[in-house]
Amino acid sequence: MSYLDNIFFAVILALGIGYFAMNVRKLIRNIRLGRDIDRSDNPGERWTNMAMIALGQKKMVKRPISGILHIFVYVGFVVINIEVLEIIIDGLFGTHRILSFLGGFYDFLIAFFEILAVLVLVGVIAFLIRRNIIKIKRFIHSDLKGWPKSDANYILYMEIVLMALFLTMNAADYQLQFRGFPHYDQAGSFPVSSLIAPLFDGMSDNAVWVIERACWWLHIVGILIFLNYLYFSKHLHILLAFPNTYYANLNPKGKFNNLDSVTAEVKLMMDPSADPFAAPANADPNAVPEKFGAQDIQDLNWVQLLNAYTCTECGRCTSACPANITGKKLSPRKIMMDTRDRMEEVGKNIEANKGVFIPDNKTLLNDYITPEELWACTSCNACVEECPVNIDPLSIIMDMRRFLVMEQSAAPQSLNAMMTNVENNAAPWPYNQQDRLNWKNDN
Amino acid sequence: MTNELKVPTMAEMMAEGKSPEVLFWVGCSGSFDDRAKRITKAFVRLLNQAGVEFAVLGTEESCTGDPAKRAGNEFLFQMQAMMNIEVLNAYDVRKIVTACPHCFNTIKNEYPGLGGSYEVVHHTQFLKSLLDDGRLTIEGGSFKGKKIVFHDPCYLGRANNIYEAPRDLIQKLDAELVEMKRSRANGLCCGAGGAQMFKDAEPGTKEINIERAEEALDLEPKIIAAACPFCNTMLTDGVKSKNREGDVKVMDVAELIANANDL
Ligand code: SF4
Ligand code: SF4
Asked: What 3-state class would DSSP assign to A361?
């Protein structure tokens, strides 16, 4: 009989982890839909960025209130999950608080977890208030209609439930230890839950035991549900913030990449001695000519796609965006959310069609992101600077502009005039290059 | 006021068998825009005063390609870039100074990948170094105690992390340097970047330059200092739309110093 529990636990654990692993595989497949880009340089600087920005939350505290509350929730969540290790061992082998052999250190750990649990509750409740009562602008923005809005709240509710279960479980455990209930040896110190424990005073040993077991099971099942919820939620950032900060751009923010495919053609055009019909020695005769810029997610690089999965929809970017502040349609957060939604759509298409993408007459450009949004960007980099996990919405905007201009000649009329001027007179205005030094003699 | 500006071209220098210590990249705005030409001349006066051996490309200069690149036209950008690089390399240019953060960013960051590697400095950095080396002094007198607010150009600040050089120069004027809430890395764009200068804004509730001008005017400054010809235009228009052009001036940092030095 007693083994049934353990087997049941093992099955739930395997299902929970198995389903999660399956979704991680999808996630990796979708990110790989992107073009290649080399980010293997400067590992030292990359590790430092990851340590400072993902682990150390350096950019979160630029906004001190939400930054500190977030640190409570983040540290609490990560540290309390150490407890999950013990729960898994206890569950598989039917032990009670297996790590209690650590003695005084164990007492310290449990006490520390409990205090953190309270801080998590404080943080989460403050977050709910900020979102739903104070209604901070970036949280009630039109980007967050429907699922994204509920998603943010669900996660917060889920954390409240998990913390409540954790503390109630400890309180019941503490009661049982106190009463000398068999199997519940004295272990741990319970500064918070010992305050809840008196609630059980009048109950029978068995009733308290049932409560303890129920909380224990619900807690671990809750954690597995949480884990599996991540893939469908902006909360993927808990995991992806790490690779995302590692692979982020290290160049000065003003440096935009030069397209190599263009360089080759321009060199050819500028070199009068080059034979325009000469094929490069190693040319693949079946190669599809590279598309300039990005029309759909397959034209973006994998770091941009990783960015989209990592975006936590916090809207810090959008709240600093000059275009958005002045009422334009552009919202860098929406650029990231659209990219992710489209990536999911393409992923589902691939699954439905046995591993190959069947064109669906839709693209990221137009069906998700409109030219009006793209043309409103001033390339000011405020969004990139703001993002707490080093996402680069601007690079996606630029790649899509490139597609509009170089593949579709679809720039606004006034920009076409500017470009014609640059081409003909070497200046964006219709002045003659021969007059370039006239300022010297002007008064 | 000295009227005679000494502005040698690279071609003239070359003919004399000389090579300048720095090339002054004037940029399209600095060459053609009436307001920006005054900045160009102020900077040249300072270079002349400090006795800097510089030269310009003159009619051999052409657009860096920045507005084309930010508009998405990589072809046009690279054509411009390669043409310019050919000219610069032919003159064996090593060091470039420019008063335009867009030219600065493009030449510094995007030319090396196309074969043009130079030491590139912004004019505020260059002036700061002249000061540090004792080649230039600043007479603070005329700006003493005046309230000056500095607007960070995106392509100097966030794009290239240069925040101090322009501020250090303003400090030298004995002026009262004040900061907007959105400054340095959090600075708000003037609205011109990303080729916006050359098109109408998308429909919205406000113009970006007005939002920024309002923020600056809230501090009741005497002068809004800029370090970019495009920011200068945008902020000047913003100040005008608030009918404040009578009592608040928008000036480039180089103009402030040239003014202080009575040039
Ligand atoms: S770079 Fe573009 S999208 Fe990002 S904040 Fe600036 S204007 Fe907005
Ligand atoms: S891109 Fe970054 S700043 Fe913008 S919503 Fe996503 S996580 Fe937040």
From this structure: coil
Other beta carbons within 10 angstroms of residue A361's beta carbon come to 5
- Output the pLDDT for position A275: 60
The minimum-distance atom of ligand 2 relative to the CA of A310 is: 7
Q: What size, in residues, is chain B? A: 263
Q: Which residues of A touch B187 (CB under 8 A)?
A: 382
CB A239 within 8 A of CB A230: yes
Query: Could you give the count of Cα atoms lying within 13 Å of A309 in the half-sphere of its Cβ?
Result: 30
* Cα distance between residue A406 and residue A146, in whole Å: 36
B160 with B228, same domain?
A: yes
CATH number for position B68: 3.40.50.1860
Supply the range of the domain harboring residue B237: 138-260
Contact B98, B122 (CB under 8 A): yes
The pLDDT of residue A78: 82
Residue B147: beta bridge partners? Answer: B176
Q: Do A415 and B83 touch (CB under 8 A)?
A: no
B147-150 and B119-122 strand pairing? unpaired
In 3-state terms, what secondary structure has residue A73? helix
Q: What is the DSSP string of A227-260?
A: HHHGGGSGGGHHHHHHHHHHSS--S-TT-PPPPH
pLDDT band at A1 (very low <50, low <70, confident <90, very high): very low
User: CB–CB of B198 and A262 under 8 A?
Assistant: no
**Residue keyed to tokens 């061992």:** A89
| pLDDT tens profile B166-191 | 999 999 999 999 999 999 999 999 99
Q: Of the candidates B98, B130, B162, which is a domain's last residue?
A: B130
Alpha carbon of B145: minimum distance to chain A alpha carbons (Å): 31
Cβ–Cβ gap A328/B204 under 8 Å: yes
B42-99 pLDDT tens trace: 999 999 999 999 999 999 999 999 999 999 999 999 999 999 999 999 999 999 999 9
Residue B40: in which H helix or E strand, if any? helix B34-50
DSSP A36: P
ipTM attached to this prediction: 0.96
CATH number of A260-276+289-430: 1.10.1060
